[in-house]
Amino acid sequence: MSNEEFNPNSYDAILGGIKSELHSINESLTNLEDNQGQIHKRISDLDLKVTKNVTDVNNKVVALEYFKNYLMGAVAVFSSIASYFFVKFFGEK
Fold this sequence. Notes:
- The protein is mainly α.
- It has one domain.
- It is built from one helix and no strands.
């Protein structure tokens, strides 16, 4: 078969072109599905990390609030004891 005998508009040529395009599209879709699975896995991993970090930060904030309250209580007790002794020993006589 010479070049002059090849008809690019023939039924076989058109079907061959369609088949190769469909094969290319199928490979692209397969790659997209693989990428989508990897993206969903990364998103779920990040969600777990963010949830863990938020929980850690919340626990630290609660601990700092408790420490602040205990410290304010200790200062109030020390202040009242100091004012008692100050009034007792240096107060008006």
